[in-house]
Each structure stands twice: as structure tokens, then as C-alpha cells.
TrEMBL record:
GO biological process, one term: negative regulation of DNA-templated transcription
Species for this entry: Lentzea jiangxiensis
Segments of skewed composition (Basic and acidic residues): 1-11
Chain intervals for the UniProt region annotation (Disordered): 1-24
Taxonomy, superkingdom: Bacteria
Gene Ontology molecular functions: DNA binding; DNA-binding transcription factor activity
Name of protein: IclR helix-turn-helix domain-containing protein
Positions of transmembrane segments: none
HTH iclR-type domain boundaries: 27-74
InterPro entries tied to this protein: HTH_MetabolicPath_Reg, Tscrpt_reg_IclR_N, WH-like_DNA-bd_sf, WH_DNA-bd_sf
Length: 103
């Protein structure tokens, strides 16, 4: 059993770019992966399901959600996580100052 768990974890780490491999995922890309994973669900999502959808370890998924909670983007509901209405506010169009457009 230990061998199976170790093999599954090693396989997941290789796919997620753990241990400094080329193509390693940054915290930012992991957070974005977690946000994107919510798109497949209407309600609360369990930590295990988010981990499966993002191909991240469950502990990493918790840590990424921990970055999103203080920003008000994710909340806890029962045993799962839920996107808040704050996410919709992030979709509003923004104006780019002309100083940046002329560069």
C-alpha cells in the first residue's frame, strides 16, 4: 500500500512540476488553476475534488484557497469551498491609462 501511495504521489508531483523540474508551476499558476476548477461546479466543491481537478496535492489546494479567502474570492461552506460574488466583480472591464498604451 505504501508503494502505491508513493507512486501516486510521485506521479502527481512529476505532472505538477514539483522538485524544480522544468515547467514548474508557480504559486500564481496554482491559484489560477484552483479558480478555473471552480468553473466546473455550481455549488461548493470539496478539497479532494479541487485537488483532483487541478492535479495538485490536497495540502497545496488548501494553501491556494488560503490565498484566495482573505481577498474575499472563496468562502467555506460545510466541508467545501465556494466562490463568492466578489469573483464576478473581477470580471468588470477596466480602463487602461493611456500612458501604458503609448509604450
Amino acid at each position: 500500500m505504501f508503494e502505491q501511495l508513493h507512486t501516486e504521489r510521485s506521479s502527481r508531483q512529476a505532472r505538477s512540476g514539483a522538485d524544480g523540474e522544468r515547467g514548474a508551476r508557480t504559486a500564481a499558476t496554482k491559484v489560477l488553476a484552483v479558480l478555473e476548477a471552480f468553473g466546473a461546479y455550481d455549488g461548493a466543491v470539496s478539497p479532494a475534488e479541487l485537488a483532483r481537478q487541478t492535479d495538485l496535492l490536497r495540502s497545496t489546494t488548501h494553501r491556494m484557497v488560503g490565498f484566495l479567502r482573505p481577498a474575499g474570492l472563496v468562502d467555506v461552506l460545510g466541508g467545501g469551498f465556494l466562490l463568492t460574488s466578489r469573483v464576478a466583480e473581477c470580471r468588470r472591464p477596466c480602463r487602461i491609462p493611456s500612458a501604458f498604451l503609448s509604450r
